[in-house]
Every structure is written in structure tokens, then in C-alpha cells.
Amino acid sequence: MSAFAPQIVLAGLVAVFIIAFSKGAFGGGLAVVGIPILALVMDPVDAALVLAPLLFVMDLVTLRVFPPRTWSMPDVRWIAAGLFCGMLVGAYAFSDLPRDVAGGLIGAAILAFAVRQLFFRPAPGTPLGVSFWRAFVWGGVGGLTTFLANAGQPPVAVYLTRRQLPKTIYAGTMSAVFTLANATRIPLVAGLILARPSLMLYSAALLPAIPLGAYVGKVMHDRIDRDRLFRIVYVLIMLAGAKVLGSSLGLVP
């Protein structure tokens, strides 16, 4: 089937819009849905290749929405360090571990955290200060989930939501971390993408959905209060955890 068949183009535009929307509204959180949506109309490996350069373009667009003044730099440094280490651990130490097993364990942990925060969370206490070891550890878990399931944002959100940052600082910090993470992917997939001109053209055709999604997301970000924003983030974490767990069990693509 042609990559430019109407249903394939529509699925791509929907997937890219949703991911860009989440980046504009929350700094990320819905990248995990991109491959399952595209997998409905194309091979999942091709879907991952299509999305890889688009994610980086989204990050560049989002940096205009959340510039460096919206970043918590101490958190960015330690989360990014943990993220890179987690990706390396995933690439080497877990090469012999079935991804379904690792993904299932991680998905279950993410899902449990989100359910607790949504339904059993105690009254807010003192905001968590910058914690280099928590940032590094949760960044490391995010690196693992990025490697195993393209779902790095939920573990990082576990740490950042406990920081109780202002909503724009939260979104900016999340955006900065995953701009760095997605930039490291480009050299790894560039050769594969360049060898598939049809996928390059398909990715290019989906570009218009990025600024539209980011703009609509930023409008939403500006109009909702912090508590409501974080409730939405917890719902996204829960859905992402359920997706990772479901994929490991073969229940969803």
C-alpha cells in the first residue's frame, strides 16, 4: 500500500498532531501513542522511523514555546544525565532480556504510580526540592522506557510532579530534557531513514501538523490552572503505563 494512501496520511497527521499537542500543553507525555496509531496502517518499525525525525522537529518547535527561561536547569542536568545512562543500560545490559518482560515490569510500575496519584494521593505537602539522586534515578528509568517502549516521559514526570513546579517551568523542563534525548536518536536512525526515500517524503508530508498541534496545546496550557494540568498529566501517565503494560502482554500494538 502506498505511504500516501488517504488512510495512511490521515493516521500520520492524527498521530503527529496529538504528540505535538501534548508537547505544547505539557512538555510531552503522548509520544507513546504515535507508533500504535501508525501501526494500524503500516509496519511498526516503519512507524518508528517516520516519527524519529518528526519528534526532533517537534522539540525544536516546542523550544520556542518553552524557551530556556522556563527550564529548571538543575533538574534538566541531572535528569538528562540519568536518561542517557538509562538508554545505555537499556542498549547493553538488557540486550538479552525479553523486551516484553522488562516493558511489563516498567509499565506496571508507571501504572501503579499514576493510579496512586489520581485516586489515593495524600494531601499535598512541602514541595520536593531539587534532588540530584531522584532526578538521576527517574531519568535513568525514563532512559530505559525510552529504549524499551518509546515512553520516557512518564517516569520523568514521577519526579517532576513531586517537585510541584509552576506549570510552565514543569513543561519547559520536560521539553528541554526530551529535546536532548531525541537529538541523540537522529544520528542512530539517519542512515535507515535516508535509505528509505518514501518514508522521508511521508515524514515531510506530516510536518504541517506539528505547529498546529503545538499551538493548540500552548493555548490549552495557558488557559488551565496548575492543579488541573497535573491531573491531566497523571491521566496521561496512567494511559502510557497501561499501554506499555498492554503491549508487553500482547493486548495492544
Mean pLDDT: 80
How many individual domains?
1
Count of alpha/pi helices = 11
Please tally the β strands and state the result: 0
Q: Could you describe the largest sheet, including whether it forms a barrel?
A: none
Span between termini:
20 Å
* Beta-strand content bin: under 5%
> Could you say which structural class the secondary elements and strand pairing correspond to?
mainly alpha
Rg estimate, integer Å: 17 Å
- The low-pLDDT segments are none
Morphology:
globular
The H-and-E topology, N to C, reads as: HHHHHHHHHHH
Helix content: over 70%
Explain the layout of strands and helices.
Blueprint lengths: L5 H21 L7 H5 L5 H22 L7 H20 L6 H21 L12 H18 L3 H11 L3 H28 L2 H9 L3 H15 L2 H23 L5
Write up this protein.
- The structure is a single chain.
- The two termini are 20 Å apart.
- The protein is an all-alpha fold and 253 residues long.
- 76% of the residues lie in helices and 0% in strands.
Question: What are the key terms here?
Answer:
253 residues; globular; mainly alpha
Care to give the gist of this entry?
The chain is an all-alpha fold. The protein has helices spanning 6-26, 34-38, 44-65, 73-92, 99-119, 132-149, 153-163, 167-194, 197-205, 209-223, 226-248.
